């Protein structure tokens, strides 16, 4: 096992900055997901860790060892890409055994490891089959096995499940997590799929526009996003984010959501320290509200989205879409006016100018 230390890491391509000032510690045996939208710099980070490209600035350490100038083949990393790298003219067995042969692992040891890995990844029945005839799903499972069998200290996976079908992806999420636990590798996993990151990773590193925005356990990042981008990016649907302004109301501070066309200011005892007139973004997750007959946000229902176990109500006016997640029996129809009560402990406030979390 090996820890990874990224210090002030940056990468420019010509005049374009793909990554700037990235600092991240990944512990021995930890599973960290780099999560963010397309083009945010995830693969660039990964390619620098693997040694495929050199950083423009900053350092990469594996344990205590500086990786500057160390070629990919000497870094002890396993790498799995979105597109499986499989020798289609070989059998499944030969593919799994390939790296072991190349590094001089003896026959008995080779057979044991191939059989163990095949069993682990449910490939035993296919060992004698040529890879050429296998489905995309199985090929990607084989690609993972082929890399994992080398027991690299660091295992890098870049969108390994984006070409497989949804049902298989769900199975592989569990298997990859088991694999990492079994082999106790330090794993870095690039994905734009929050479900993959949330379900597998010990910690998530959320990135956007070449910047690392937040690192934490999945639940911590979900519950306490450090800024507006992370709040909206995580969750399906993401956090409701409404622009407003703090106003004095008797002893307490309230948030006037006038910009959203919402008439009712919200009680803001939580935000006593806020200066009056501060432009804020008021956030709450769609699952943290309920329908009430008392006071609350009165909103028209624009669309009722029934998705099996859950119903998502799309509400709002003045171009703002506020979503609430309810169970599938919620007795609401399109055009109804509902009143939302928002769980005060789950309200999040962000600075409208910087996007940074206030509460
Ligand atoms: P995706 O999931 O789409 O691959 P990503 O988060 O992995 O996204 P990167 O591949 O790291 O993003 O790319 C980050 C930015 O750097 C993008 O704008 C991309 O176009 C740019 N980029 C990456 N490699 C190069 C290169 N070799 N030359 C010029 N620009 C590059």
UniProtKB/TrEMBL annotation:
SMART domains: AAA. The keyword Membrane applies. Keywords: ATP-binding, Cell membrane, Membrane, Nucleotide-binding, Transport. Residues 4-234 form the ABC transporter domain. The keyword Nucleotide-binding applies. InterPro entries: AAA+_ATPase, ABC_transporter-like_ATP-bd, ABC_transpr_FbpC, ABC_transpr_MalK/UgpC-like, Mo/tungstate-bd_C_term_dom, NA-bd_OB-fold, OB_MalK-like, P-loop_NTPase. GO terms for molecular function: ABC-type ferric iron transporter activity; ATP binding; ATP hydrolysis activity. It comes from the Bacteria. Pfam families: ABC_tran (PF00005), OB_MalK (PF17912). One of its GO terms (cellular component) is ATP-binding cassette (ABC) transporter complex, substrate-binding subunit-containing. PROSITE patterns: ABC_TRANSPORTER_2. It is found in: Cell inner membrane. Its main location: membrane. It is a peripheral membrane protein. PANTHER family: MALTODEXTRIN IMPORT ATP-BINDING PROTEIN MSMX, OSMOPROTECTIVE COMPOUNDS UPTAKE ATP-BINDING PROTEIN GGTA. This is ABC transporter ATP-binding protein.
